[in-house]
Amino acid sequence: MGAFPFPSDQGSQLLLAGTTRALVEAGHHVEIAAYAHGAGLMPAGLGETPVHRAPGVPGYRRMRSGPDVVKPVLDLRLARVVAEVLRDRPFDVVHAHNHEALLSCVVARSATRMRHFPALVYGQHTLMAEELPSYSRLPGLRALGHALDRLPRLADGAVALSARGALALGPLGAAVIPPGLFASDFAGVQPRRPNSGRWLVYAGTPDAFQGLGGLAAAMEALPGWHLLLVGPAWTARAARRVWHAAVPVSARWPSARDWIAGADVAIVPRETCAGFPMKLLNYSALGLRTVVMAGGAYGVPGEVSVEPGESTAQAVSRSLDLPRPALASVLAKWSWSSRVPALVELYDAARVTARAARS
């Protein structure tokens, strides 16, 4: 389940969709719980998957990440929906994606008073102590983030997307299971670009935690290069905040993938991330060399890490001398189907933990 709009092209929603589709294709029964609203069509492979939705708030259609006064209301409504679903029929596991979903599940568990509540698995997407301060300068947000980052101890098991994320979860003993790809999502790609010249592409949200602040300096040091910003949230105004000459393309998948594939180099400007940037895998599968910051490398084909003493612009230029990753080599290690055995093993271990704790 996810305490967010669904579907959406944002990372958390893509992770939930990919996990669900991989499990369904492996023969498991999966149902989704999320907010009432979303954007776009249901992802491929999920057409028959039941989706339980929290009743919405009239006029509220926000898609972006970050706190607001409405989301706690939706989270409580989502908890009620989850409790009702669990009363109706048995499930083995509830997989709660991120902090808000975990809180909703804890509320649902208290409300149902079920002796055999399903095992609760926490899916870590980020560290709130790092992300919350990026939304506001209000005092105390980092302390609140640290408190939220201790919530996973309420779960019976946890999934981390990276070794750094697992380390942050400490004694919970999280399994490190990074996301994957589906080959069908990259069939029939037709690369596009606005015009000639060299193009650097960023395909993600305009949120402050993404580390977009350094892109302007990088572009000024790359004469002859253009910056393409791809994603449904990009407008001309948002693009100008990043760099005065940035070109926005407001597009959803699969149209967005054609624009991404037409670029020369991609970038993940975020300095550190306890989760896993879904855009990084998409870049690689589309054959792009991708510049990542020193603390943001994950071993994905085509990564070009900014070296000590090197500028981002220098890394972008250097990347042109490297080969483009091939889709077959990316899928060999990063397919969603290869993630299912580890997920099932984690779920089984969480069930044992849950039974022992509640016996």
Structural class: alpha/beta
Instruction: Give helix % range.
Output: 25-40%
Number of domains: 2
- Using the alpha-carbon principal axes, give the shape: globular
> What is the number of helical segments per DSSP (H or I, 4+ residues)?
13
Low-confidence sequence ranges: none
**Quaternary structure state of the chains depicted:** single chain
Report how far the terminal alpha carbons are from each other. 25 Å
Largest sheet: 6 strands, parallel
Regarding CATH, which class of the largest domain? Alpha Beta
Give the number of DSSP strands.
Answer: 12
CATH arch. level architecture of the largest domain: 3-Layer(aba) Sandwich
- CATH topology assignment of the largest domain: Rossmann fold
Q: Using the CA coordinates, give the radius of gyration.
A: 20 Å
Share of β-strand residues:
5-15%
Strand order of the largest sheet: 9-8-7-10-11-12
Mean pLDDT across the residues is 94
What series of H and E elements makes up the topology? HEEHEHEHHEHEEHEHEHEHEEHHH
**Full CATH superfamily name of the largest domain:** Glycogen Phosphorylase B
